[in-house]
Amino acid sequence: MLRPSIYRENLWDDFFEDEFFHPFHGNGREAEMMRTEVKENDADYEVTMNLPGIQKENVKVQLKDGYLTVGASSDTNNDQKDDEGRYIRRERYVGSFSRSFYVGEDVKQEEIKAKFENGTLVLTVPKKVQQPAVEEKRYIEIE
To answer: For residues 12 and 1, is the Cβ–Cβ distance under 8 A?
Structure first.
């Protein structure tokens, strides 16, 4: 709904966020991309991510500074031509998207397992219990 906001810079900020300009928000292709479930097991976390229509070679998983980042890209071209070779319909979609999860500084890349099958990526991330720092008692020597 178009209503001016007292917290915005101007009326146009509200205007372009109206559903008219984003008709598929929440129900289109982007709503299905990277839908994620995280399941906690005794020894690990299982992250299941839906990547419909994405090929395995277009999925990248990276661990850096304690953040596990999953990135994917898609480049589809649905051209339909009539009998004379003229286009009846041309649809293209090119895009990339990513999600990041903090898994902790103690998790090593070699410990993470990944499996991709039928548009579903399953990551197994081990649980790392942070060991509390042992307080070392230091005494001042008395002369």
So the answer is: no
Measured in degrees and rounded to the nearest 5, phi and psi for residue 64 equal: -150, 130
Q: Token pair for residue 98?
A: 């990513």
* CA dist., res. 36 & res. 68, Å (int): 13
Residue of 32, 60, 36 lying closest to 48 (CA atoms) = 36
Between CA 30 and CA 17 the distance in angstroms is 16
Number of alpha carbons in the 13 Å side-chain half-sphere of residue 90: 3
- pTM, to two decimals: 0.62
Q: Which residue has the tokens 């020894």?
A: 43
Cα separation, 111 vs 34, in Å, equals: 22
Q: Containing H/E element for 62?
A: strand 59-64
Q: 3-class DSSP state for residue 25?
A: coil
> H or E segment at 14?
helix 11-15
Pairing between β-strand 67-81 and β-strand 113-117 as defined by DSSP bridges:
unpaired
pLDDT in tens, 41-100: 999 999 999 998 888 999 999 999 999 999 998 877 777 777 887 777 777 777 888 899
